Amino acid sequence: MGARRGFIQQYLLYFAWIVSLTATLGSLYFSEIRGFVPCQMCWMQRIFMYPLVFILGIAAYTDDRRIKKYVLPLTIIGGSISIYHYLLQKVPGLAGFQPCTQGVPCNAIYIDWLGFITIPFLALTAFTLITISMFLLDHRAAEEREETAEDADA
Question: Is-contact 57 18, C-beta < 8 A?
């Protein structure tokens, strides 16, 4: 069981990085290739997702499992924006609240797959998967490995 747990721990950072990379490339696909103009809330979600590609990529490359304290604020705030944005799109009672006063309205729905999957829903899914990965990440194993390496060097 320990070997399996170690295997999962080893790839959690890579999984989180791949999720952030996919979300970033997906948002660029929707805006640059499909021509969907992002609203103000979409830009806010991008602000919280795009840095994760670099932060998680470096952490995965260096196996830095103490990255949680830097990643979680971005994913929790970005996920909260995604929830609010998704509710603006799907709950008619919130139609009176319009945070996007210029440009594309925030309740505009560019995609509506299966009747519930919209762009903010996809962003929320990515933020949630990264957040769960960070909570599952055990930084103690990496610290123990560093201590063992230091002891071996001494």
Answer: no
**What CA–CA distances, in Å, run from 62 to 11, 71, 146, 147?**
12, 15, 12, 16
Domain boundaries, the chain: 12-92+102-149
pTM of the model: 0.85
Q: Per residue in 89-110, pLDDT tens? A: 998 777 666 666 677 888 888 9
CATH label, 12-92+102-149, candidates 1.10.150, 1.20.120, 1.20.1550, 1.10.357:
1.20.1550
* C-alpha dist (Å) from residue 121 to 10, 43, 66, 88: 28, 15, 28, 11
